[in-house]
Amino acid sequence: MRVFTVLIILLITMLIQSTVLGFIRVGGVQPDLVLLIVILNAFLRGSKEGAFLGFLAGLCQDVLSGNYIGFNALAKMGSGYLVGLAESKLFKDNIFVLFGVTFLASVLCQIIYYLLLIILGVMVTPFWALLRIILPVAFYNTLLVPIFFKLFYRSRIRGLFSEKEM
Amino acid sequence: MRRLVSARNLVFLLILVGFTVFAMHITAPGRSNLTPIESMLKDTLAPLQKGILHLGTSARGWIVFPFKMAFYSRENKQLKEEVDKLKGQVRQIKEYELENERLRKLLDYENDNKLQGAAVVASIIARDPGNWFGTFTVSRGLADSVKVDCTVTSPAGLVGRVIAVSNHTAEVLLVTDPRSGVGCILQGSRTPGILEGVASGSGTLNLIHLPVAQDIKKGEVVITSGVGSIFPKDIPVGEVESFYKESSGLFKTAVIKPYVDFNRLEEVIILTGKVQFPEKLPAEGDNP
Predict the structure, then answer these.
(1) Using one digit for the tens of pLDDT, what is the confidence trace for B69-128?
(2) Where in the cell is it found (chain A) (predicted)?
(3) CB-closest option in A30, A63, A65 to B131
(4) Could you tell me if residue A2 is inside a domain?
(5) N or C: which end of chain A has fewer CB within 10 A?
């Protein structure tokens, strides 16, 4: 049941991400909601599930956007896995912890993107990439954490992400 | 200290990563067609995305309307003045066009950069969900005779080209995408250069490989050159914002501000007709 909920949330997020999210671009960048869901899920459930959902979400995004298949999948899998490692080590009820985790995970995900771009032979100047994309996107993602925090906090006890079987 | 990954998982991970990187290479833009799964998914979700985007656009319109009222009246006055000015210019241009036609006839000069064929108007239904690439999904596809490498423009100027097509959608690679390269010239000095995207988020373009001795002026117009590329000639692209010497010291790079506002774009024009390139070389002896 929980799996279905997460998948439906992901699908809706993906549709929003590819359509109306462009309206809230600041300086040309938009936040990555799908990554945010992946991060939160990994932080709740640990690295194995974090990596799995990251891969799945990224793959869906790739197939939908008609770009390189596997581009988002790998980057989000890596972020999901590493955030999942912090699951048992960090205190979950503090929003600032979540801020930090989101920021770092976003930077990490973008760095993986950048490395994949190099593998694919797409040249983006590192300076540009860091200043105009990597850091702004990480900031933007972090700014959106409070919106999800309440949902996330509540759902640990009961609700969307809880273990309860229907 | 617990190990990060067990040996078995590491092997599995390496295989997965290898396979995915392989998949990425195969599915790079420029491939002839999308996989059936992608086509199906894109075609299925297109109406949904179109609906969401339409709702979002109209909602945004209603929300910002009251705030824009005061601004609109002032803008309206300015626009009216500008329209009058432009109307005069259009008449002037019409005159030049007729003159051009007459002179062409006199010279018996073949006009080889007219687009032979049609264009379709397509609305944007989805944007690239990430921040690295500049791509749009538009609402026309194979069914409307859109093919890969068709040029995509808007009334303001060049937008990009089609890189993938399904039955009812097409993927457009914008000129701001780092993977895009377009042969261009500076309109005033006719200096050729290559127009490259920097990163789609930045919204600026670089015109690279301009001769270092070339005098470049700010505000100079950049148009497509039509040489050795899939883009037809003379489509306006943008204006020179600034320029600097490349690190090699042999060339200059100009930073171009595009005419098209890619974040506000809603409809595009896809040129589906065949672009005719001049096939015959000028005969010897008739150099100007």
Answers:
(1) 888 888 899 999 999 999 999 999 989 988 888 888 788 765 554 544 578 889 999 888
(2) Cell membrane
(3) A30
(4) no
(5) C
